[in-house]
Amino acid sequence: MLWAWISLFIRSGLILSAANLLCRSSREKLGPSYRYRLIAAGFLLLLFWPVLSAFLPEIALPIWPHHSGGIVTITQTLRSFEGAAPNSPPGNRPLLFWALGVFLSLLPICTGYARMRAVIAAASPIQDENWRDLLARECERLRLCRKPELLVAEHDIVPLTFGLIRPRILLPAGCAEWDASQKRMVLLHELMHIRRGDLRWQVFANVVTALWWFQPLCWLNRRLLRQESEEACDEWVLLSGIRPSEYAAQLLSFARQFGAQRFGKFTVTTAMVRRGDLEGRFRAILNAKLPPKACAFPVFKVLLLIVLAISASAVTIFSGQNEFQGGHVMKRTVISGLLASAGLTAATIGGSVLDPNGAAISNAQAFLYNPDTGAQQEVTTTADGKFTFQSLPAGSYILRIQKPGFAALYREFTVKPDSDIQRGLVLGSAGAAPASNAAGVQETNGQAIRVGGEFEQAKLIYKVQPVYPPSAKAAGIQGRVTLDVTISKDGVPEDIQVISSPSDDLTQSALEAVRQWRYSSTLLNGQPVAVAAQVNVNYTLLK
Residue 190 and residue 168: Cα distance in Å, rounded? Predict the structure, then answer.
């Protein structure tokens, strides 16, 4: 799970940093509208990037192996041809932590919206005919089909625009005393925000930032998007014939008059003055070149961003010890989530828990853990030793069954949306090796059967090296973990049974690695078939 979060952080950082660098590199040659589109494209790609990761093919790139204080060797024996979680699994803690961050990030938006609604409700429509005539003329010049509503606040407030569907321009109480030039500057600036749809894009960027709150570049690009939005509207005011020095002086006057108020910091408005943005805006206004292509769409650079997003989605970088950027982890997670949300999955894992004599074991704890998502479920066996996990999304699961007086049992399953896996599981006495399946094991979605004939042996084409657990190193635990692996026709380990293991930590390490292996298809008489193999993972401490 840790590698999945590291993967998210690195890949999203590549997309956002590229958008930021392309924007800043265009500052001297192109206008703010161009740069604004680059940052907005970065946020849009970031939102859809997980979907790209789910459906694009994977490209695996190896890097230098990472060496630890122990040696892990692997042997694999083809046994026959045929046609679990850690002691304290993290469960949903990473997802709950992420959800808490999303809630705290969205809280200022929601509270700001509520406060702004109260301010708008207390405001009154403007009665000044000069304001109304000016609004009509400028809306016609900007070809705005629907005129925004002009409101006057009960007290002095920085001029701002509010409302995604029904935009309203809020003016301070003393706006009737402004001269014609001041009125035109303010109206031009706010109307340009409406024409460009800046408020919608900024709310969109705020939501994406809340979802990716753990990525600092999201917060940086959100501020840059807001800054480029203001500079783009400033540029339009200047193109309308307002002198740069006069406009800068008006902004400075607003900053002195309204700068202490917090209304300009609302994330649901486009305020004309924000203290943190003024220095850059003054510099841009007084040195404005007004490039003729300021509003052109940055096609070439957006295409570069798309190519980078596709590369970040498809490429998987791994080392000899573990996966560095788990592309296929996100692929399985996103596809499983989509299937589950659409109600297209009904996978089931269940069975019976027995003691070595074949008697049912009741009140045993069964834990099912998805290492890709961190989701965990727990049930207790019934009086006849039965347990069932239903409505599971497709993916990999590690099952752990334990009861005082018995040795813990681990199994790994890879389920499809329609899988119905039933197992008879035997718990050995405490200190004994895990037992094999009891008689009468059944898998209703297609059990493997022994066959004969000419075959072509499966080859391991992708291997994640098991990591020597630090806790096992510290305790001086070493030895061999023996796994019985059923490999599907597609070369995916679908059912991993622990035959023997010196400790639960080494069991977890071996299961986490082997479940990610991929094989070439095994051919029997030219047709792909399932294959059962025994894998030995040897953990040896260096002396």
Answer: 10
Distance CA 440, CA 497 (A): 16
Task: Kindly report which listed range (117-121, 188-192, 292-296, 466-470) carries the lowest average pLDDT score.
Answer: 292-296
Contact criterion met (CB below 8 Å) for 536 and 469: no
Query: Do 274 and 365 share a structural domain?
Result: no
371 and 416 in a single domain? The answer is: yes
Q: Are 356 and 426 in contact (CB under 8 A)?
A: yes
Q: What is the CATH number of the domain that holds 429?
A: 2.60.40.10
How many separate domains does the chain show? 2
**Are 280 and 402 contained in the same domain?**
no
pTM above 0.90, yes or no: no
Rounded distance, CA 373 to CA 89, Å?
A: 12
Does residue 521 lie in a domain region?
yes
Question: What are the Cα distances from residue 357, in Å, to 155, 409, 422, 435, 437?
Answer: 83, 16, 20, 12, 13
Q: How far is CA 6 from CA 12, 61, 215, 323, 329, in A?
A: 10, 17, 11, 10, 12
Q: Which residue, among 385, 386, 387, has the nearest Cα to 377 in the 3D structure? A: 387
Q: Residue 265 burial by CB count (10 A; 0-12/13-18/19+): exposed, middle or buried? A: middle
Q: What local confidence, expressed as pLDDT, does residue 104 receive?
A: 93
Q: Residue 410 in contact with residue 399, Cβ under 8 Å? A: yes
Residue 124: strand, helix, or coil: strand
Those residues with Cβ within 8 angstroms of residue 171's Cβ, 6 or more apart along the chain or in another chain? 126, 131, 150, 151, 152, 153, 157, 159, 186
Residue 330 located in a structural domain: no
Which residue type occupies 463?
K
Which among 259, 276, 293 is the end of a domain?
A: 293
User: 86 with 116, same domain?
Assistant: no
Does pLDDT of 71 surpass 80?
no
Q: Which structure tokens are listed for 134?
A: 């000016």
59-62 and 315-318: which strand pairing? parallel
Strand order in the sheet with 522-524: 455-456, 522-524, 527-529
**Pairwise pLDDT comparison (19 vs 49), residue with the higher score:** 19
Q: Is residue 57 part of a domain?
A: no
Tallying the residues shown for the chain, one arrives at 543
What pLDDT was estimated at residue 216? Answer: 92
Residue 85 lies in domain: 70-91+341-541
Quick one: 410 and 493 in the same domain?
Answer: yes
Residue 177 shares a structural domain with residue 84: no
Instruction: Tell me the mean pLDDT in the region 29-58.
Output: 78
Q: What is the DSSP pairing of strand 442-443 with strand 395-402?
A: unpaired
Q: How far apart are CA 73 and CA 533, in angstroms?
A: 16
260 and 408 together in one domain: no
- The separation between the first and the last C-alpha atoms of the chain, rounded to the nearest angstrom, is 31
- Which string of DSSP letters, residue by residue, matches 495-519? EEEEEE-S-HHHHHHHHHHHTT-EE
